[in-house]
């Protein structure tokens, strides 16, 4: 399936979409490849000529119309997310709200793309910096937030004056189709937003090699991100990369342990641990490690696992069987190296891809879970003695996306805030994400930001102009 130059395109090549909670086929979409991607890039390139020249307010008005349509379809959009991704309906509704918020925010920001007038060093020179759209943006999105990851990329692109070709994840194409239906209904001009669903490698190759694509924005695994970056080097594209993470969650003995345990619950078990800012390592100060472990295990054992469409479900399925097997391997490895399961620990036998929400006490740095991204509902508890030690261990990762710290000691909070090598830090806050703030990592977690004025910068170039008069 594709949406190119304002028209829907079907092909005979079909791929099924599955519900990860039941294994049932919930739909099928036709898939496209290199040729359609070329066409989509061509359409985006043509429409860029006019879209970039529209006043920001006009671009913003198209986006605001799409917001209105999405709000009127919010329940249906959330249902699609739950069916193809598995997350509980309440979380899917939250994702729809968040995704729409990005579009709304950037619809407003489209009016506020300012340049600069720079003081000159000569009487006859006049210096200015124009901020202009970078060009056609190619976007590749993952399945863990199948709706909001799309609007997070398209919103700043359109506000800046860019046009877009987007490839969603094969597991969750239905949410992507929903988004593009809304843009179509909003009357966004043909070619401004284009969708290509299909062969990742073929589509990716067209996107990275095309000289008509000026920018690549990707959210997904670090391995694929690195490959796309390498492939884009030949055409020197601007890059935004939101890649993997391995978040530390540090809990000091002075923290409110109840709040910290609720924080881990939010950060580790929302979306069944399948978010890039999910906690991967819970570091608890030695004196409270045992008490905290018991508290967390009790809360985790009360979580309801099941089909996200059912009332009262807290944790849905993992995306596929491969994900379940990986989580299981991490748990087995931890147990074989001395970890003690306080809650959960097993695959749930069913037609869906479920794993019990799990807490492991006595985690050590040699376990796989200490360095590899689990992307599942397992909280390993490590213990530490001093601030210096925990900061060093927390930073000992090639990832640098999100880090968390719970403490009521202001000096500790400042020290951790300054020293953590992560792009996002939550102090007593397990959900440090909001539309007006920059989301993005450092190290091998990527480059570039989504959100706020920073997100707009990723789609703009600075053109310096010097005018000489006499
Ligand atoms: P995950 O393991 O979480 O699925 P991936 O990085 O494989 O993460 O997937 C994120 C997105 O990247 C998806 O849309 C996927 O189809 C896409 N993708 C995977 N491999 C490639 C590739 N070789 N070229 C372009 N896109 C790719």
From TrEMBL:
<keyword id="KW-0560">Oxidoreductase</keyword>
<protein>
    <submittedName>
        <fullName>Succinate-semialdehyde dehydrogenase/glutarate-semialdehyde dehydrogenase</fullName>
        <ecNumber>1.2.1.16</ecNumber>
        <ecNumber>1.2.1.20</ecNumber>
        <ecNumber>1.2.1.79</ecNumber>
    </submittedName>
</protein>
<dbReference type="GO" id="GO:0036243">
    <property type="term" value="F:succinate-semialdehyde dehydrogenase (NADP+) activity"/>
</dbReference>
<dbReference type="InterPro" id="IPR016163">
    <property type="entry name" value="Ald_DH_C"/>
</dbReference>
<feature type="domain" description="Aldehyde dehydrogenase">
    <location>
        <begin position="10"/>
        <end position="465"/>
    </location>
</feature>
<dbReference type="InterPro" id="IPR050740">
    <property type="entry name" value="Aldehyde_DH_Superfamily"/>
</dbReference>
<dbReference type="InterPro" id="IPR016161">
    <property type="entry name" value="Ald_DH/histidinol_DH"/>
</dbReference>
<dbReference type="InterPro" id="IPR016162">
    <property type="entry name" value="Ald_DH_N"/>
</dbReference>
<dbReference type="GO" id="GO:0102810">
    <property type="term" value="F:glutarate-semialdehyde dehydrogenase (NADP+) activity"/>
</dbReference>
<dbReference type="Pfam" id="PF00171">
    <property type="entry name" value="Aldedh"/>
</dbReference>
<dbReference type="InterPro" id="IPR015590">
    <property type="entry name" value="Aldehyde_DH_dom"/>
</dbReference>
């Amino acid at each position: 399936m594709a949406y190119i130059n304002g028209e829907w395109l079907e092909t005979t090549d079909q791929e099924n979409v599955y519900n990860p909670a039941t294994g049932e086929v919930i739909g099928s979409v036709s898939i496209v490849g290199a040729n359609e991607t070329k066409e989509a890039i061509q359409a985006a390139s043509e429409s860029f000529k006019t879209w970039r020249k529209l006043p920001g307010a006009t671009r913003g008005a198209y986006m605001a119309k799409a917001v209105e349509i999405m709000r009127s379809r919010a329940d249906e959009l959330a249902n699609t997310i739950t069916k193809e991704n598995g997350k509980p309906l309440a979380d899917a509704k939250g994702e729809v709200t968040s995704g729409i918020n990005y579009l709304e925010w950037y619809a407003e920001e489209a009016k506020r793309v300012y340049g600069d007038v720079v003081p000159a060093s000569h009487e006859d020179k006049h210096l200015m910096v124009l901020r202009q759209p970078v060009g056609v943006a190619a976007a590749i999105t993952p399945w863990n937030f199948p709706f909001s990851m799309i609007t997070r990329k398209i919103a700043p692109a359109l506000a800046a004056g860019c046009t877009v070709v987007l490839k969603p994840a094969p597991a969750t194409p239905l949410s992507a189709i929903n988004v593009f239906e809304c843009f179509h209904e909003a009357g966004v001009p043909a070619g401004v937003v284009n969708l290509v669903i299909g062969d990742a490698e073929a589509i990716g190759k067209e996107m990275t090699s095309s000289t008509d694509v000026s920018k690549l924005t990707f959210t997904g695994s670090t391995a694929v991100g690195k490959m796309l970056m390498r492939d884009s080097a030949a055409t020197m594209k601007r890059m935004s990369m939101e890649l993997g993470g391995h978040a530390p969650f540090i809990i000091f003995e002075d923290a409110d342990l109840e709040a910290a345990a609720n924080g881990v619950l939010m950060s580790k078990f929302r979306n069944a641990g399948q978010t890039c800012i999910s906690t991967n390592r819970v570091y608890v100060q030695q004196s409270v490690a045992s008490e905290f472990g018991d508290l967390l295990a009790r809360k985790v054992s009360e979580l309801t696992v099941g089909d996200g469409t059912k009332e009262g479900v807290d944790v849905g399925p993992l995306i596929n069987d491969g994900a379940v097997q990986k989580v299981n391997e991490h748990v087995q490895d931890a147990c074989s190296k001395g970890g003690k399961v306080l809650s959960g620990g097993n695959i749930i036998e069913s037609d869906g891809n479920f794993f019990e929400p799990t807490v492991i006490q006595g985690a050590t740095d040699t376990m796989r879970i200490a360095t590899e991204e689990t992307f599942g509902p397992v909280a390993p508890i490590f213990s530490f003695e001093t601030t210096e030690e925990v900061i060093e261990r927390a930073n000992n990762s090639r990832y640098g996306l999100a880090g968390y710290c719970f403490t009521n000691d202001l000096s500790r909070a400042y020290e951790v805030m300054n020293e953590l090598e992560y792009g996002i830090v939550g102090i007593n806050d397990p959900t440090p994400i909001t539309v007006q703030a920059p989301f993005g990592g450092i190290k091998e977690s990527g480059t570039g930001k989504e959100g706020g004025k920073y997100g707009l910068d990723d789609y703009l170039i600075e053109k310096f102009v010097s005018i000489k008069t006499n």
